[in-house]
């Protein structure tokens, strides 16, 4: 049995997934985040319990390759606390189990609608206002809270970077400092989420999952390299514009999926009431 048969999906579906995930990789390589946000379109083709872990795994590969390309911009590990990614990661470790519980235990359309609407509104506001000076600090405690919020969101959407990107946007950090926080955080959260899924829901990683991973990773890695190449030519101002444009796009995708889920739920309730 070949890998296409093991996936259980048609050639047309695989082709759509490859296109979506290649674009996700380009976007993430360019901005340092947003792989799973753009990749959320896969939720129209795959069930969440398959799509979310797949996005986590592919996002991890994307981040690993991207980090290797910009490693000269990264701080050494001993500088990760308190001004680097370490406080965000510490908070995220608390948030991830909550997000994974939501993914497997509760209906998420309402949460997706709220989160998606917030991202769209915030991105529109940020694009309409000039870049802010670095007036917010907050310290490591605030960073840990932001990281925890990202961990919760990442657990059920595979998009942990949103909360951190929003917060860093308020700090007005240049693109190198921004990526030096966001990317290690996203990579850490995806790896923690995958490890917890392996322990709590080992059936997630079945033949279908691994066949889809093998089929789609070949589109993700070249897309990542292209995105990083584009990133290196961007100014800080254009990087900010791209980041918030992607946040808005991500929010719209999540909002649309949430509204669709609510519509399905409403329809089922209507049928059951008759």
TrEMBL record:
Protein localization: Cell membrane
Which keywords belong to this entry? Cell membrane, Membrane, Transmembrane, Transmembrane helix, Transport
Q: Which InterPro entries match?
A: TM_pro_TauE-like, TSUP
Instruction: Name the source's superkingdom.
Output: Bacteria
Annotated transmembrane regions? 6-26, 33-58, 84-103, 110-128, 140-168, 180-197, 209-231, 252-272
Give the record's GO CC terms: plasma membrane
Major site of localization recorded for this protein: membrane
- Indicate whether Transmembrane helix appears among the record's keywords: yes
Membrane-related topology note: Multi-pass membrane protein
Q: Does the keyword rRNA-binding apply?
A: no
What is the similarity comment for this entry? Answer: Belongs to the 4-toluene sulfonate uptake permease (TSUP) (TC 2.A.102) family.
What this protein is called in its record is Probable membrane transporter protein
Q: Which species expresses this protein natively?
A: Trinickia symbiotica
């Amino acid at each position: 049995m070949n890998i296409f048969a093991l996936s259980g999906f048609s050639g047309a579906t695989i082709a759509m997934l490859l296109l979506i995930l290649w674009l996700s990789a380009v976007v993430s390589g360019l901005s340092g985040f947003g792989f799973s946000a753009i990749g959320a379109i896969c939720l129209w083709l795959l069930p969440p319990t398959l799509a979310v872990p797949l996005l986590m795994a592919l996002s991890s590969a994307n981040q690993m390759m991207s980090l290797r390309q910009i490693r000269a911009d990264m701080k050494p590990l001993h500088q990760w606390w308190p001004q680097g990614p370490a406080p965000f990661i510490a908070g995220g470790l608390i948030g991830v189990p909550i997000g994974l519980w939501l993914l497997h235990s509760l209906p998420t359309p309402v949460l997706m609608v709220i989160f998606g609407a917030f991202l769209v509104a915030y991105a529109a506001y940020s694009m309409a206002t000039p870049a802010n000076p670095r007036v917010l600090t907050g310290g490591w405690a605030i960073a840990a809270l932001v990281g925890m919020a990202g961990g919760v969101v990442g657990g059920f959407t595979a998009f942990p970077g949103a909360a951190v990107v929003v917060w860093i946007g308020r700090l007005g950090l240049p693109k190198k400092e921004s990526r030096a926080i966001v990317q290690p955080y996203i990579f850490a959260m995806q790896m923690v989420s995958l490890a917890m899924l392996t322990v709590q829901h080992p059936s997630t990683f079945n033949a279908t999952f691994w066949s889809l991973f093998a089929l789609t990773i070949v589109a993700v890695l070249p897309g990542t390299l292209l995105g990083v190449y584009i990133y290196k030519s961007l100014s800080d101002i254009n990087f900010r514009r791209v980041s918030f444009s992607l946040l808005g796009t991500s929010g719209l995708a999540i909002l649309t999926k949430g509204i669709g889920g609510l519509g399905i739920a409403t329809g089922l309730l209507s049928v059951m009431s008759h």
